[in-house]
Amino acid sequence: MTITPLMPVYPRCDVRPVRGEGCYLIGERGERYLDFASGIAVNALGHSHPHLIKAIQEQAATLMHVSNLYGSPQGEALAKRIVDNCFADTVFFTNSGAEAVECAIKTARRYHYANGNPQRHTLITFNNAFHGRTLGTISATNQAKMRDGFEPLLPGFAYAPFNDLDAALALIDDHTAGFLVETVQGEGGVAAGTEAFIQGLRKAADEHGLLLVLDEVQCGYGRTGKFWAHEHYGVKPDILASAKGIGGGFPLGACLATEEAAKGMVAGTHGSTYGGNPLAMAAGNAILDVMLEPGFLEHVSAMSDRLRASLSQMIPNHDHLFGELRGLGLMAGVKLKEPAVARDFVAHMRDHHGLLTVAAGENVVRILPPLVIEESHIAEAVEKMSAAARSYALPVAA
Does the pTM of the predicted model rise above 0.90? Predict the structure, then answer.
């Protein structure tokens, strides 16, 4: 067997996009797809948004990269705008979500080191978590499919069931640094944290001198109808990892922290060659220009309500196939009933009905439309999903 020029670590489908228009992707044969995957929650403004294109073009013609040896007026401007719209006092820019989580892990460990407690290095994380593909971030999950073949992994993580506050609290000991948790799990099955769980973690962190580290790479940046998912819970983290929608398709991530939590991150403790380069900052500022417009998040919230209402109305019509509706805002999940397989149904919708979605853990179909969708897109998506449910042949049980 001859290996392909692109390392074959992705089971790529036959869709080969060459162009995007708003909420649609166009393949190389001219076929159109309604994109309710959004590059896995990345294309927050859809495809080919004119303001984002203009900002990237203008910056590319001026200055793309200089390294972090020099001052960054572009980075300073974007960091200030982000700080002004969140809990944090400081931002470190990365190229990806995994790097943002890595920085968050380092920031949490360094905080206790700076306080004279280097033994407090263990983060309590949660079953079915997905924090990225680096050695550090796969060490922060207990999913065998992420870890097998990559041992030895990094020490310093303990695992509890998601949404089980008592189990998480039982893991606290003299080595605990804090909690690392997705406010809404994405890859793990589009499961939203309960109020009691998220608020309980914040309370426990305060009581024990620990840090609450949120991974909002997928659920943050407007995806749930608020700028940050944790706003739904009335809590503030100490550290937060963001990415995906923050660049709208341009590779960009960020680690956000309070001044107290970042006290150990002094000169020389962390770095990134490309992180925060002028081109990425131009993209990030363009995304914020749109997201901070009056009414943008209100529109996301309204479309979230419409999408969830439409899905809730459709699900009982196909109760042989669809189970519960999960998620928060425009991060929705529909759990399938056995013997249906989410990955197969996602392929069926894609290949036969022109609707793009994403499979997730626990046999869930993940629905992640651009944040700029209109009611017409929701109606089209639900109609396609319903038609796919009618034409989908259930696997024969073994």
Answer: yes
